[in-house]
Amino acid sequence: MHNDIIIREATLTELNTLIEWRMEVLRCVFSIPADTDTTELRDANIEYYKRALADDTHIACFAEQNGKIVGCGGLCLYDEMPSPDNPTGHCAYLMNIYVRPEHQGHGTGKRIVRWLVGAALARGIKKIYLETSEAGRLLYSILGFSDMKDMMHLTFQE
Q1: How far apart, in whole angstroms, are the C-alpha atoms of residue 112 and residue 2?
Q2: Which contacts qualify for 85-91: CB closer than 8 Å, 24 or more apart?
Q3: C-alpha distances in angstroms, 61 versus 38, 140, 153?
Q4: Checking CA distances to 131, which of 7, 31, 74, 95 falls within 20 to 30 Å?
């Protein structure tokens, strides 16, 4: 049974574990070959976690089953200019949601997202964004996320 999954906040004391999981997520999401040198990316993520966890602009969590980490997630907290649909200007960006393949399909991802949304709501944040793959679209739709119209992003060519 998968009722024994717990979601808990990850802290700076677990920096090495956070980095291991972040790099696993990046390899999976961006299809980074195993032999690619990711030292620079790893170092940048270490610096990010050190800064963002210390100043409370990032919340990280782990999903554990029987004391073993099986998934992770994160929430970047930031401010935008206040507007009628977000008078406080406080926002969150949901990211790094990942459950190892052998643990998928049992609601762990859903529990991670709900935990992180709860953390945002506890801070008064009601505007939460995310990017998703096709594989994650159904999960986020079930949890109440919807597509945004009129959004674009600038893509740079190397």
Answers
A1: 13
A2: 85/127, 86/126, 86/127, 88/124, 88/125, 90/123, 90/124, 90/125, 90/127, 91/125, 91/127, 91/128, 91/129
A3: 23, 18, 28
A4: 7
Give me the residue label for tokens 């008064």: 124
More confident residue, 153 or 114: 114
- Contact, 132 vs 98, CB < 8 A? no
132 membership: H or E segment, kind and range: none
Which residues have a Cβ under 8 Å from the Cβ of 19 and sit 6 or more positions away?
Answer: 42, 45, 46, 49
The amino acid present at 41, given as its one-letter code, is L
| Sequence spans of domains, the chain | 5-142
- The pTM score is 0.91
Reported confidence tier of residue 36, pLDDT bands at 50, 70, 90: very high
Residue 116 CB neighbours (<10 A): 25
Strand 90-99: give its sheet, edge to edge.
5-10, 58-65, 68-79, 90-99, 127-130
Residue 156: other Cβ atoms inside 10 A: 4
Is domain 5-142 annotated with CATH 3.40.630.30?
yes
Across the range 80-85, mean pLDDT stands at 94
pLDDT for residue 133 is more than 90:
no
State the angle between helix axes of 108-122 and 134-142 in degrees (0 to 180), rounded to the nearest 10.
60
